[in-house]
Amino acid sequence: MPKAVSLFTGCGGSDRGLIDAGFDVVMANDTMGYARDVYLANLPETDYVLGNVADVRSFPEVDLLAGCYPCQGFSVGGVREAGRKINYLYREFDRALRQIKPKAFIVENVSGMRNANNQHLAVNQLTRFRMAGYKVDWSILDARAYGVAQERTRMFFVGIRSDLGVRYEFPQPTHSLPGEDVHGLPSCPTIRDRIEDLPLWPEGEYDNQPFHWYYLSRDRWRDWGQVSRTIVANSRHTPLHPVSPRLKRIGTDEWRFVEDAPARRLSYREAARLQGFGDMTFPETGGTRLRYRVIGNAVPPPLFKAVASAIPDIW
Ligand SMILES: C[S@@+](CC[C@H](N)C(=O)[O-])C[C@H]1O[C@@H](n2cnc3c(N)ncnc32)[C@H](O)[C@@H]1O
């Protein structure tokens, strides 16, 4: 069984995918205590090192290194400050890569990395990884095409050590997108497929803060037969559950419920299902917001599994 080290591990979306793809994750690392707690409650075999990656001085020898730096650097906000942060974090990944020299690595990040403002960062990372001795390919993948019932696109870099003489090819879709049947593949699953069996009003498991103007500045509703909108880390911005009345547009960036009926956000448990996790254990050491946060930060396990499984047999 090939061995892996995971950095920026969070609660383990990437690692669930690696394990499902046949890897043994021997070490994980993150700064967030609650992410560690959720991880170990669900994947207890891994040595999870809690703390800043910059303080991890040595890594075990493994075949694969995986890492998903945080994405704040690529979203709105002070570009210069964000730039400094992300430079620092991918340098840490690069340091681990040069120390371990694994046969392959996988990096996941938000697709915003290819936008004009951030392109230099993507190019910088590619250059570093190539200089570290890897043939590197990148792609933007749509999670729906790999069986995830959610709108989520992510950027991946996959590198294979140059001396192995093998090139990586990103996996072909396993599911057709909504409204498409071009590949003769099964349709991607819907919200119904993933959460219909769960209670309709799971008290205490969803964020019930009021729907403020920012929340109602866009359409947060999807029906049972559709895929979910993106599951985010901030519980206040979590999409609506289909039991809620639909929203209608009443102006620029202004939406209203079509009727005065009870409405709610998806619960953290439903969010986990829609990310492609199975049923997870959430330890009591963290409350509702932290539960949403670790789930929203995660890579959908089926997507990471597909990327990892597409690495040729170099182990
Ligand atoms: C996008 S999330 C990773 C998601 C994770 N791979 C998963 O699939 O569940 C990025 C993670 O990086 C962690 N992080 C941020 N700065 C860090 C640092 N300096 N050292 C270690 N982890 C850090 C955050 O706490 C967060 O959990």
Automatic annotation (TrEMBL):
<dbReference type="GO" id="GO:0003886">
    <property type="term" value="F:DNA (cytosine-5-)-methyltransferase activity"/>
</dbReference>
<dbReference type="GO" id="GO:0044027">
    <property type="term" value="P:negative regulation of gene expression via chromosomal CpG island methylation"/>
</dbReference>
<dbReference type="InterPro" id="IPR029063">
    <property type="entry name" value="SAM-dependent_MTases_sf"/>
</dbReference>
<protein>
    <recommendedName>
        <fullName>Cytosine-specific methyltransferase</fullName>
        <ecNumber>2.1.1.37</ecNumber>
    </recommendedName>
</protein>
<keyword id="KW-0680">Restriction system</keyword>
<dbReference type="InterPro" id="IPR001525">
    <property type="entry name" value="C5_MeTfrase"/>
</dbReference>
<feature type="active site">
    <location>
        <position position="71"/>
    </location>
</feature>
<dbReference type="Pfam" id="PF00145">
    <property type="entry name" value="DNA_methylase"/>
</dbReference>
<comment type="similarity">
    <text>Belongs to the class I-like SAM-binding methyltransferase superfamily. C5-methyltransferase family.</text>
</comment>
<dbReference type="GO" id="GO:0003677">
    <property type="term" value="F:DNA binding"/>
</dbReference>
<keyword id="KW-0949">S-adenosyl-L-methionine</keyword>
<dbReference type="InterPro" id="IPR050390">
    <property type="entry name" value="C5-Methyltransferase"/>
</dbReference>
<keyword id="KW-0808">Transferase</keyword>
<dbReference type="InterPro" id="IPR031303">
    <property type="entry name" value="C5_meth_CS"/>
</dbReference>
<keyword id="KW-0489">Methyltransferase</keyword>
<dbReference type="InterPro" id="IPR018117">
    <property type="entry name" value="C5_DNA_meth_AS"/>
</dbReference>
<dbReference type="GO" id="GO:0032259">
    <property type="term" value="P:methylation"/>
</dbReference>
<dbReference type="GO" id="GO:0009307">
    <property type="term" value="P:DNA restriction-modification system"/>
</dbReference>
